[in-house]
Amino acid sequence: MCGIVGYIGSRQAQDVLISGLARLEYRGYDSAGVAVADGGQVVVKKKAGKLANLSGELEQQPLPGTLGIGHTRWATHGLPNDTNAHPHATEDGRLVIIHNGIIENYLSLKAGLIERGHTFQSETDSEVLAHLIEEAYAGDLEAAVRAALAQVRGAYGIVVTHVDHREIVAARTVSPLVMGVGEGEMFLASDVPALLPYTRDMVFLHDGDMVVLHDDGYRITDLQGNPQERPIDRIDWDAEAAEKGGYDSYMLKEIYEQPAALTNTLMGRLHDDTGEVNLDISLDPTAFKRISVIACGTAYYAGLVGEYLIEQLARIPVEVDVASEYRYRNPLVSEHTLAIVVSQSGETIDTLEALREAKKGGAKTLGIINAKGSSMTRELDDTLYIHAGPEIGVASTKAYTSMVGAFVLLALWLGRARGTLTDAQAQELLRATRELPRLVEEALNPARVAEIKRVAEKYAQARDYLFLGRGVNAPTAFEGALKLKEISYIHAEAYAAGEMKHGPIALIDANLPVVVVATESHLLEKTISNVQEVRARSGKVIALLSDGDTENAAHADDVLYVPRAHEMVSPVVNAVALQLLAYFTATYLGKDVDKPRNLAKSVTVE
Hints:
Shape: globular
Number of strands: 26
Radius of gyration: 25 Å
Strand content: 15-25%
Distance between the termini: 11 Å
């Protein structure tokens, strides 16, 4: 989850490092640090807290030098303080490392190193790597890193430099690393946005890759020293896409980017004349008897929408699993199982390991992924990219709605191939799907946004919230509750509305706001019955209704109207209103919506 940046070339390294880390601070912000080489020494500066703490010091005392490495940390082992911040140096200061990931056997390694005379400064597992490399070093830094990594078990993206060498050595297993290729300079980072101001030519390192960077190029090998070839990918993102673009936060910017993101996800894949969907994937849609959807967090809720859509439209049994549980329950899979993993980053460690577990059982695998070149995409049989563009805000918005849009496409594709959708049904759903970017644009018009802001501020002091939904919009309620608690820190529960009377109804009193997703559907009448149960117990009902539904507005204390949408695609439109409700609640309370406490964007350690 930590942010990594490295540079070697003719520029002042400090400037490149701080610029890159600023674009990666969403990956970790408990502390930050840099190490810059200048002739005969490598100078380390690191500071607990957000990057601004470090950059303020560096403005007063810059570090000259044209080779450097930098890091923003999200703490796993050891408190988030100056000492535990990266980079970590050996006692003589000649060798410096940064590390993302977890060394699972660090305690036994550390005990052995201490017995052999090594002194540790920090509580981190990462410092073990510095001492292992120092112990193996005999003039060849690459060989020393290779020897050290042969002793460790776990996940790592590691970057190393040494005062005796004008080079950077890096390696990865599980934790992502990408190189940027420039003219007479080389870059390294844990994610693409850090490098976009300098180059668009990227090399995505694979699991088990080691790379040595020099001013004029690089060399990639595996961990045994065998040469490896990796393609240079030209990234077409505009650097501005990773900036706030005039919005108060990345999250708000990304909420407003959803019409464009959905356009990228959907268009070019829909053929209205034939009712067909072209996903450019090679899997046989008729070969599967069951589907497993595997994901975490927001992606898991997108998967729950996908379950409903696929079962309704393609008539294939679907089960949805939390990835962190899937790999430990000895899942039943076969060659007739399609395992669909869902991840914005393509690096989520629990989902990646669950993917590997499914493959071991013989399942075919498909990913619904945003990030090209990510670890999952290299292990999947096929990938359905959502093309949502970079998402910087920790709380996912445009990636979520694009994932749901991708599930709509997938359900249509499966339904057509398996003969469960007629031409007329397919064309109706394609038209509804094509409308989604316009409907989301309409959901973001100023009058609607102003009303959501009013309601958010009205209930901002509530200590608890309840979210309810039914059918394809039960997951919308789950996602709405997650967004609220992620960024406002208000406790929020979510239930399928029919479950309320089986326990959660005991929570309802006059102090409890209850958000009910009650847009047009075949279950609307039943949902309104649940609303009546809330009102009978003095709960405050915030109803999400379709435009024009004045009849059911009478049952609510407050109404948030959304554009009318076909029931099967309505979760995309409805999610937007709940994102804004969470956003305005959090900003009214003064929370940092882009960097909510204890969370990081990409969970790459267990």
